[in-house]
Amino acid sequence: MALMKAIEYAQATPEVRAVYDEIMRTRNTDWINNFWKVLANDPALLRRIWENVRQVMAPGALDPLVKEMVYVAVSATNGCEYCTFSHTAGARSKGMSDAMFTELMAVVGLANETNRLANGLRIEVDPQFLPR
Amino acid sequence: MALMKAIEYAQATPEVRAVYDEIMRTRNTDWINNFWKVLANDPALLRRIWENVRQVMAPGALDPLVKEMVYVAVSATNGCEYCTFSHTAGARSKGMSDAMFTELMAVVGLANETNRLANGLRIEVDPQFLPR
Amino acid sequence: MALMKAIEYAQATPEVRAVYDEIMRTRNTDWINNFWKVLANDPALLRRIWENVRQVMAPGALDPLVKEMVYVAVSATNGCEYCTFSHTAGARSKGMSDAMFTELMAVVGLANETNRLANGLRIEVDPQFLPR
Amino acid sequence: MALMKAIEYAQATPEVRAVYDEIMRTRNTDWINNFWKVLANDPALLRRIWENVRQVMAPGALDPLVKEMVYVAVSATNGCEYCTFSHTAGARSKGMSDAMFTELMAVVGLANETNRLANGLRIEVDPQFLPR
Amino acid sequence: MALMKAIEYAQATPEVRAVYDEIMRTRNTDWINNFWKVLANDPALLRRIWENVRQVMAPGALDPLVKEMVYVAVSATNGCEYCTFSHTAGARSKGMSDAMFTELMAVVGLANETNRLANGLRIEVDPQFLPR
Amino acid sequence: MALMKAIEYAQATPEVRAVYDEIMRTRNTDWINNFWKVLANDPALLRRIWENVRQVMAPGALDPLVKEMVYVAVSATNGCEYCTFSHTAGARSKGMSDAMFTELMAVVGLANETNRLANGLRIEVDPQFLPR
Lengths: 132, 132, 132, 132, 132, 132
What we know:
6 copies of one chain form a homohexamer. With 132 residues, chain A is mostly helical. Helix content of chain A is 65%, strand content 0%. Chain A has 2 domains: 7-58, AhpD-like, CATH 1.20.1290.10; 60-122, AhpD-like (Up-down Bundle), CATH 1.20.1290. In chain A, α4 (64-78) runs antiparallel to α5 (81-93). The longest helix of chain A is centred in the last third of the chain and has 23 residues, at 98-120. At the C-D interface, α2, α3, α4, α5 and α6 of C face α2, α3, α4, α5 and α6 of D.
């Protein structure tokens, strides 16, 4: 049970519905997931986060599927259950295969391991790695 | 100053040199970075971690550049200074442009933000996101 | 299911009951939450953590409601389900409104985002920010 | 040394200068800190993050000083050096005393401790804490 | 529900069964836990992680029980539910008593607290602590 | 530069000196490290944290060296530079050898890796791991 109630489309104000409509149009779906329905308790927060997601996740210098996999990598690192499920579904819908998913998890696991070896041994940055 | 000394090639045992040689050959470089030189205090640890990195970061279902960017994303999320510098350099050498790097950071930042919104509001996973 | 059983008041030793009584008196409630009932498996741990909570969360230079909201912010950042639920309830009982809660989450989300931008880009501390 | 160069006002494009001007006007200062100067490598990122900070940190249901202290709490929890220095300076400028700062740190420390006791013992959420 | 299905022994390929057999033989048990059954979707990942666990958790300079307790400490710090349950069970089977477990949690909690006091106050490392 | 000044013995109040004296007596040393000298800005915080450290790190069900190594494991996981240096020095003084240190790091790295595999794949806890 979330800490605030989910606002359904039928109960939403026109301001909230406008964001819901944009989400469904942009994603070409006919439903709204709980993340947005809970944010809708604060329409300004809903609008602001949606604008951020829309801009950041749009095609750009990186492929949308790569962005979704980076999102999964961060969510797995932070242990966010909701985000892991939702962005894995997002990556699947953009073409992530089983082999890509397990390989992604392998990279995430290894990075978390070597991050701690570097931090625990307090290894110094090589001058060669500094930007010129 | 790292918590253990860096083992230079000249002082290394044949067992350690063999790993150093593999690293330089695989990466087509003529130097060894501090991470490996500190791990070399424990040759079995050096060998094991190198084998893992070699296997996980090899081309597979994911592009090697994508893997390096995922590594940077995890390292930035964990605040690992060494790994952020070394894997950003790795991604640069594999073709990451300035635009790709700032876009990657944008995704990493946003994922860390929405991870906390989902966790802080304890949002429930939508049944639609569960695997079938 | 917790990893150790919850010790109910009826089964508790006098030493544990003394802490339970203090908690109920300090908080003006008639029940003990699971956190304390599980810590009670180690009466010295229960006593020590309770003394710390009592001292740190008492009115001081910061308002008790501000302290509860800081607690929620840290718990959301760490993804601690139990602490997010319990300290959100605590903040609610001290006067946190819906608007304060969503605004708190907005700050927590943003801080987690910019923390990663600063860490990922390895931004150097401006001399103006150093204490004099 | 940051991973991308800092863009000074004199070298900035009009688009970037417009954001710098807004930051200085909003904060009533005559300098720009490194965080923004590095984000300026990607003008859209600079503009987006600044808009978010401006909106989230404005006065609202929470006091601006409380928001800065929450920012410090999250930054300390995540170990972000840059953000800890910059937002502690921000909180100082808004009136945080020495006593308020050490008390804030005491709450942050305790929350991080009890978060791990709850997570490590896998304590179950009491039904009384669930929202009605 | 995990994001990939668990592969049971009866459905497993000979390659996967070989790892399952090694796990059961090494641990002297007659069942395989979900962690391995989900990794088995990617036989190379299963084999690699198992080899790592086998090597790292074997008796060496540290006692196997100490290693399991370190594993529990890290898992509690990261908030990993699965790992906390599985490695607490592992530590129990190697002799961890109730008193050892609650004392371990006390150390983990305290370390998480003082980590944030040190990071939040940006305390400088004393020269006496640097390795010679 | 820490965010608050270090309070030297010569400038300390009797209340602070009493804690410094206890620390030096308990640890059989003639100097005080920066952590305590910065906490001394808030004598109640200094006293409270010292009492906690003294109690938790005393011999008990776990060996003091094991406790110091658990402290190092948590500090490496959290990326706390100060705590990693200070508790590694503490563990060294209690007998941690080079081989024990690198083996400890191997366990910490592996635990961080498998924590993310379990969290990223959302693996379900086996009923066999639940306490009876």
